[in-house]
C-alpha cells in the first residue's frame, strides 16, 4: 500500500499534534509540516524552528515545508533544514490565501513559471538534499499547469504533491480529477494525490482511478476523523471503542498544548480551533461546535468536552 501522508495544516498539525496523533492512532507513514518562512535575508523565526527540532520529531518521519518567492530565502531555508538533518524539504506552491498569494508566494507564484524555473535552478544548484513541491493546479486556472509541468519536469524534484484545485477556488467546489489525471500522465516525478479524502469509500474510488500515484495525503479529513488512516490501511468502516479512544487522544492533546503554550487562553483557542473539524465526528456536532465556540475559559471547556465525550460507545 502506498504511504499515507499527513498534510500540513498550519495552526493544527504541529509537532504537538503529530506526536500525540502517533501515540493514539496508526496508519500514517510520514507528515509534511506546516510551512516556515525566512525573515530579512537568512533569519528564521525561532518559533518556526521549534516545530522542527529533530529530537522532538522522531515519532513520525517529517518533511519540513518552506514558503518563499526569493531564491536566496529558499536556499537559506533548505540549507538550514538540511543541516538539521532533514533529507527532504518541501516547497509550498499551493497556499491560496490572498495575504500570501498577492505577494507572489504559495499559489501566487503559479502564473509565473519563469520565476519558478529560476528559483529551482538556483536552489537545486549544488543542493545535495531532496526538494519536493506541493502545488495546486494553478492560481486562477487549471490550465496554468500546462506551462508549469515542463518546468517541474526539467529538475530533479523528489515528488510533486498535487491538490487539484486552483488557488482562487480556496476550498470551494470540487477537486478537478480530470486535471489531476492529466498531471499524472505528464509528470516525470512521483506524484502524491491530496484533496478531500474524507472517508474510506472516497479513498477507494481514488485508489482505483489513480493506481500510479506514489502516495496519498490526508488533511482535514484526518483531523476530523483521526481513525481515517487506520480505516484506510485496514479497509474497515467500523472502529471499536471509538469515543473512548478519541477522548484519550483529546485529553493528551490538551496536555501537550498546556506544556507548549504559555497560559490557558492559548490552549483554549487552539482546542476551539480543532473543534471546527472534530465536531463533524460527533453526533450533534453542529450544536456542540456552537456551544464550544462560546466558551471563555479552559476549565469550562474541559468540563463541557468531558461531558460531550462521555457519551458511551455503542
Ligand atoms: C487551516 C489550513 C492550514 C493549511 N496550511 C497549509 C500549509 O502550511 N502548507 C500547505 O502546503 N498547505 C496547507 N494547507 C492545505 C492542506 O495541506 C491541504 O492541501 C488541503 O487542506 C487539501 O487537503 P484535504 O482536503 O485533505 O484537507 C492548509 C489547509 C488548511 C485548511
Amino acid at each position: 500500500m502506498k504511504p499515507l501522508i499527513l498534510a500540513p495544516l498550519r495552526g493544527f498539525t504541529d509537532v504537538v499534534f503529530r506526536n500525540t496523533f502517533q501515540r493514539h492512532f496508526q496508519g500514517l507513514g510520514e507528515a509534511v509540516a506546516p510551512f516556515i518562512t525566512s525573515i530579512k535575508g537568512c533569519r528564521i523565526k525561532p518559533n518556526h524552528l521549534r516545530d522542527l527540532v529533530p529530537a522532538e520529531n522522531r515519532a513520525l518521519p517529517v518533511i519540513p515545508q518552506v514558503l518563499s518567492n526569493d531564491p536566496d530565502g529558499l536556499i537559506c531555508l533548505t540549507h538550514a533544514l538540511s543541516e538539521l538533518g532533514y533529507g527532504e524539504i518541501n516547497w509550498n506552491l499551493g497556499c491560496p490565501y490572498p495575504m500570501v498569494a498577492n505577494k507572489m508566494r504559495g499559489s501566487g507564484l503559479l502564473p509565473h513559471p519563469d520565476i519558478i524555473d529560476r528559483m529551482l535552478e538556483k536552489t537545486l544548484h549544488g543542493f545535495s538534499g531532496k526538494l519536493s513541491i506541493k502545488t495546486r493546479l494553478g492560481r486562477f486556472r487549471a490550465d496554468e499547469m500546462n506551462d508549469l509541468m515542463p518546468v517541474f519536469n526539467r529538475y530533479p524534484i523528489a515528488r510533486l504533491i498535487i491538490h487539484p484545485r486552483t488557488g482562487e477556488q480556496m476550498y470551494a467546489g470540487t477537486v478537478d480529477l480530470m486535471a489531476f489525471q492529466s498531471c499524472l500522465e505528464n509528470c516525470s516525478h512521483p506524484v502524491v494525490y491530496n484533496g478531500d479524502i474524507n472517508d474510506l469509500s472516497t479513498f477507494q474510488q481514488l485508489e482505483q482511478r489513480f493506481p500510479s500515484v506514489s502516495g496519498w495525503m490526508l488533511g482535514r479529513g484526518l483531523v476530523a476523523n483521526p481513525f481515517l488512516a487506520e480505516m484506510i490501511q485496514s479497509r474497515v468502516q467500523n472502529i471499536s471503542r471509538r469515543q473512548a479512544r478519541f477522548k484519550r487522544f483529546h485529553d493528551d492533546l490538551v496536555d501537550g498544548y498546556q506544556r507548549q503554550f504559555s497560559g490557558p487562553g492559548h490552549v483554549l483557542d487552539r482546542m476551539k480551533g480543532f473543534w471546527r473539524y472534530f465536531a463533524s465526528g460527533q453526533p450533534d456536532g453542529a450544536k456542540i461546535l456552537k456551544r464550544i465556540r462560546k466558551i471563555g475559559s479552559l476549565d469550562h471547556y474541559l468540563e463541557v468536552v468531558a461531558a460531550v465525550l462521555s457519551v458511551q460507545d455503542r
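The pocket of flavin mononucleotide is lined by residues 7-11, 34-35, 65, 92, 94-95, 134, 163, 194-197, 218-221 (CB under 6 Å). The chain has a mean pLDDT of 96.
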